[in-house]
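fyi for ur records
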Amino acid sequence: MLQAYLVSIGITAASRVLFVADGAAWISRRIPKLIRALGLQAEQVRLTHRRMDYATSRNHQMPIGSGAIESAIRRVVNLRVKSNATYWLRENAETMIRLRAWIKAGRGENLFNQTTYAPITLAL
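which gave:
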């Protein structure tokens, strides 16, 4: 899903791409394969493992903060999914969060096209 999204936004046209892994080995191991699959060139890619390399990222004018992501998690997940008397199965909650993110990003039709075999006219 990530690869399809990165292709759809034209990631290969970016001058710089920063991949950050949070220390989980299973994430770090997948990034080189993703880079190859996307056709990114070595000079486009910065890769940070285990811990954020703030100095290198700052030198390359790359983002170093996580505040926007943390704020979004609080607002979307905590305030919208975790409310009084609301109970979700984990997979359903994750699906709803993903669906909301795609719709809020104006990409609901793309999600529909990726997840169904029916022509979009059938959904209208």
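Residues 67-81 form the longest helix (15 residues). thats all i got for now
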